[in-house]
Design brief:
5 strands; Rossmann fold; about 50% helix; alpha/beta; about 220 residues; five-stranded parallel beta sheet; single chain
């Protein structure tokens, strides 16, 4: 509570599996006069426990956590504590992560390069019922929406490949590098690498050359 504002401080929980990130966010946000960090969690189950214990106004939640990932945590929080605003703060801004998180019940979505003021504003807005997305996430949503409008009926893909994996496989076949793919899709290089590992596993490819042959054999190049 501030000297000029009689409204109570915004009570939040911070959930991130990286201790330095979790502690840094807790200290950084706790220094703001209108925010009180009432709990911290290192995994999804702890996040559920902290919310049940402290009844916060909002939770700042990473997506990739052990025990229970951020998406499933979001679903459970939405079902059990619909009054708690969920703000995702994560490294990943690919369309599958963004859309799945929003469908699960997240109100706002930021990437970890967001400034403290932006994070604080996203928390305040989420509690007020508004959604906030940083520029990278907004671009992802626009691109995903445009893609859905352009391709209402998507072809069935072989070996359980997702549409995103097929898209990345096609880019590999075109000779694009991981950084090039990441820039084209507005995602991190780590996300691209994760997709490629799954592509290799599903297609039985030992390397990029094998993946390119697979793409050509299955008309995905």
């Amino acid at each position: 509570m501030t000297g000029t504002d009689l409204s109570p401080a915004l009570r939040i929980v911070v959930a991130d599996d990286q201790a330095t990130v979790r502690e840094g966010l807790s200290v950084m946000l706790g220094l703001l006069p209108d925010i009180e960090v009432v709990g911290a969690a290192a995994n999804g189950q702890q996040a559920l426990d902290r919310v049940a214990e402290t009844s916060p106004d909002a939770i700042l939640l990473d997506l990739h956590m052990p025990v229970l990932d951020g998406i499933e945590t979001t679903r459970r929080l939405t079902a059990l504590h619909p009054e708690v605003a969920i703000v995702v703060l994560t490294t990943y801004a690919d369309d599958s992560s963004v859309i799945t998180a929003l469908q699960a019940g997240a109100r706002s979505y930021l990437t970890k390069d967001a400034e403290r003021a932006d994070i604080a504003q996203a928390l305040r807005s989420a509690v007020s019922g508004l959604s906030v997305f940083d520029p990278a996430v907004h671009a992802t949503l626009v691109a995903a929406t445009a893609g859905q409008q352009a391709k209402p009926a998507e072809r069935k893909l072989p070996d359980g490949l997702t549409q995103r994996e097929a898209e990345i496989l096609s880019m590999i076949a075109q000779g694009m590098t991981n950084p090039g793919i990441a820039a084209e899709l507005y995602v991190s290089a780590h996300t691209v690498k994760s997709h490629i590992n799954r592509i290799f596993a599903k297609t039985g490819s030992a390397d990029r050359g094998a993946a390119i042959r697979y793409a050509r054999d299955h008309d995905l190049a």
